[in-house]
Amino acid sequence: MSDTVAIVNDTEISRLELDNAIQGFAMGVYRKPVESLTDEEREKSKGMAMDKLVARQLIYEDALSRGLTVPDGAVEAEIEKVAANFPNVEELYGTLAKAGLSKDGYHKMLHTDLLVNQLTDIKLSEVDEITDGEISAFYNENAEKMSKPERVRASHILVKSDGGEGREAALEATEKLKASLCDEPFEEIAKRHSACPSGAKGGDLGWFGRGDMVASFDEAAFSREVGEVGDIVETPFGFHILKVTGKDGGGEVSFEEAAPKIREFLDRKKKSEYLAAWVAGLKSTAEVQVFDVPRG
Known about the structure:
CATH class of the largest domain: Mainly Alpha
Order of helices and strands: EEHHHHHHEEHHEHEEEHE
Structural class: alpha+beta
Helix content: 40-55%
Shape: globular
Mean pLDDT: 91
């Protein structure tokens, strides 16, 4: 099976590049690894990944034709940032090698990305800023949609359980922790005993909307009053002692409240459309061959 999945002008795009890009879209768009995608999700991720790789190469070639260069030390600086997540830089290169990416290949990839980002920033600077008139028009045209959903804020203490033989012991431990709330603040017990990372913040999960949590947790959070702890909740993660700390009933959003988000949305949309038109123009004068890529 050929390792080449596409050719942009004279540059080949490898299967490794495509696989890595697909994995990126799987996590970024669907919040799960590519192995867990449905066939439809996998096909969409593959299409988006291929489009991104082709666009990346076209922008890179445009950057070279404009005489853009990567500042001295920029590649090394990027390597230092990534290497900070490893015991040392050799471990980084070892991990890359296991994934099929050589040291030279990694340096080239970083060099390409830096040039692509540099030219992309230049192009984005050409986009007109969103006006107050555009924001007002969008708000008026979408007035019926300008409402915020009901939200709740809650804290919890998690005792893990796999639902198997240790379930009863986990439930008993949770009941003891709940009983200790009579003597100690919820937040302190969460910090010492919760198996969730939120324990470091006293169990605070922040604000969330309906459907953001698993069903049993969601139902408990939205059915309780502020300050109420209530019965122990069981989920696939284990047992939860749940305390509601805030409620927001949602409702209509004023123009003043909506304006910043509208500006952000319109700005992102305008820039996305501008970049898409630019890349389409580059593609119209390029020779692009995309080969059939069997699903892995």
